[in-house]
Amino acid sequence: LWIVDKNVDNIQSYPQIIEAAHLLAKNEVVAFPTETVYGLGANARSEEAVKKVFEAKGRPNDNPLIVHIASQSQLEEIVMDIPPIAKQLMDAFWPGPLTLILKQKPGTLAAAVTAGLDTVAVRMPDHAVARQLIEASGLPIAAPSANTSGKPSPTLAKHVQDDLYGRIAGIVDGGPTGVGVESTVLDCTEDIPIILRPGGVTKEQLETIIGPVKEDRAFVKKDEAPKAPGMKYTHYAPKAPLILVKGENAFIQQLINERRAEGMKVGLLAASEHQALYEADYIVAPGSLAELSTVASGLYDALRQFDDVHVDIIYSEVFPEAGIGQAIMNRLCKAAGQQMIEQ
Ligand code: TXA
Ligand code: MG
């Protein structure tokens, strides 16, 4: 574990980043911070390196990885042609939490990165440590979130350590990540781009730049096969069952009381504004309804906290679905395996 300042501007003062870059160049895997979540990086040109990522995470190999780049020239090296709409989005949101699916230039990446698809997911992260590390390695870096497959993504180096210690070559610790939910995945290979995974850049933000975008129905409805292979897996789940509740505070409290009367230890995830209204065995407030981005930042740490305190069941309030709320509710619904109680 190497600790570095998240605002690092002069890489020479951080031998840790140079060391991590050397490990990447030697086809080892290293976790590093981005503005969304920690990623588990590997040389995207090396089958050997990419295989280590899948093994460390226990990730199904039909689930392709995002390639992280730090420059325009790295982009041109791996994609065929860049549609004008994609260009506009890059100008508006890169570096940032937007992943674009583009046609891949054959033979430029290890086959396992794209799981045999003819497209590739690319993003330029908005985090000084990530950018410096990619630049220092001189490589396109394939990086999924640095969690064990199925667990909430890591927003602190400690989360990576809890999941992957002993299975990877190192962790660059740049403190808490910021956005807290993963990048938006947007398929730009169709005439009208399609959101495959809601994330850090909202649908509203995309539409102000390029007009209407579509959404993959599968991330809204459970019973359709999603176009992003990763979206079909249960994800982000804490150990105890999580149930979303759409209803008044008193209704939620009543459910908590019923379970406690049955002898269960009950956890609750609620907005900070409501925290004091409840009584439960363990209450976590990831953030505030007045500023939904704070809920996104704290969401995965909140879900992980329930594992540490060993609750038997977790109830969660629901959050408004506008803006970043769409990504928040997408992750909560997945963590809950779509279980929702409505008053
Ligand atoms: O914010 C993020 O995106 C983080 C940080 C580390 O950059 N990374 C991340 O990666 O969330 P991962 O592997 O956990 O999620 C990548 C998603 C998966 O749902 C995967 O199926 C989808 O992107 N994906 C990757 N390549 C694809 C492709 N060629 N076509 C469609 N979906 C793709
Ligand atoms: Mg992930």
TrEMBL record:
Any single biological process term in GO: regulation of translational fidelity
Residues that, per the record, bind L-threonine: 36, 68, 123, 143, 183
Subcellular location: Cytoplasm
Coiled-coil stretches noted in the UniProt entry, renumbered to this chain: none
Major location category of this protein: cytoplasm
EC numbers: 2.7.7.87
Swiss-Prot/TrEMBL catalytic activity: L-threonine + hydrogencarbonate + ATP = L-threonylcarbamoyladenylate + diphosphate + H2O
Cellular component GO terms held in the UniProt record: cytoplasm
Enzyme class: transferase
SUPFAM superfamilies to which the protein is assigned, alphabetical: YrdC/RibB
Alphabetized NCBIfam families for the sequence: L-threonylcarbamoyladenylate synthase
Function statement: Required for the formation of a threonylcarbamoyl group on adenosine at position 37 (t(6)A37) in tRNAs that read codons beginning with adenine.
The family this protein is said to belong to: Belongs to the SUA5 family.
Record protein name field: Threonylcarbamoyl-AMP synthase
